[in-house]
Structure formats: C-alpha cells, structure tokens
Amino acid sequence: MQITDVRVRKVAKEGKLKAVVSITIDDEFVVHDIKVIEGEKGLFIAMPSKKALDGEYRDIAHPINSGTRERIQSTILEKYTESLEEEPEAIAGEM
C-alpha cells in the first residue's frame, strides 16, 4: 500500500484541531476527514468517525495494525509540517 496523495486543509480557528486531511491510497482509494490534532504529547491523527447511538464516536475507516497507522500518521504529519513551512512565504509575498 502506498499513499500517493495527501491534501491538507488547515483550520484557521484556535483550538486542538489543526487540519483536516484527505489521503489517496495507490491512486485508487480516498479517505477524507482525517484530523490532525495537537495533543499533550504533540501532533497525532484521528481517523474519520461518526457518533453512534450510544454517544460514543466510532472510526469509520482505520488501519488494522500499528505499523500501518504509524506509516499513515508520519506521512500526514510530514505533509502538514511542509504546509506550515510554505505559509509564511505566501503571506510575505502578499504584503
């Protein structure tokens, strides 16, 4: 499995949610609404979820082993960091 595209949409408001991401796998399958969250120990991802009838949130799509989760998370956080580094240049160019 290869992550062939990552699209980062940064969140402008203050808070723990920093971005919402879509990934494409093998140029054939897309997963939307992966969240980049600032936690106590740093950035992490939360897979797309929905609220169940009992009030708990359950992942809609998720990796089934820790190695795959780590690969997805590291790829997403790398792209998120790159998007932050690009931002100051765009702002400086507008002034």
Structure characterization notes:
Mean pLDDT is 90; it is low at 89-95. The chain has one helix and six strands; from the N terminus they run E-E-E-E-E-E-H. A hairpin with a 5-residue loop joins strand 5 (49-51) and strand 6. The strands form two sheets. The chain has a four-stranded antiparallel beta sheet with strand order 1-2-3-4, with helices on one face. Strands 5-6 form a two-stranded antiparallel ribbon. With 95 residues, the chain is α+β, with helices and mostly antiparallel strands. Pfam families: SpoVG. InterPro entries: SpoVG (IPR007170), SpoVG_sf (IPR036751). Keywords: Cell cycle, Cell division, Septation.
What keywords describe this structure?
95 residues; alpha+beta; two-stranded antiparallel ribbon; 1 helix; 31% helix; disordered C terminus
Topology:
Elements: E1 3-10, E2 17-25, E3 29-39, E4 42-46, E5 49-51, E6 57-59, H1 66-94
Antiparallel strand pairs: 1-2, 2-3, 3-4, 5-6
Protein name: Putative septation protein SpoVG
InterPro entries: SpoVG (IPR007170), SpoVG_sf (IPR036751)
Organism: Mediterraneibacter hominis
Order of helices and strands: EEEEEEH
Give me the count of strands: 6
Shape: globular
Number of helices: 1
Radius of gyration using CA atoms only: 15 Å
Question: Which runs of at least 5 residues are low in confidence (pLDDT < 50)?
Answer: 89-95
Function: Could be involved in septation.
Organism: Mediterraneibacter hominis
Pfam family, one: SpoVG
GO biological process, one term: division septum assembly
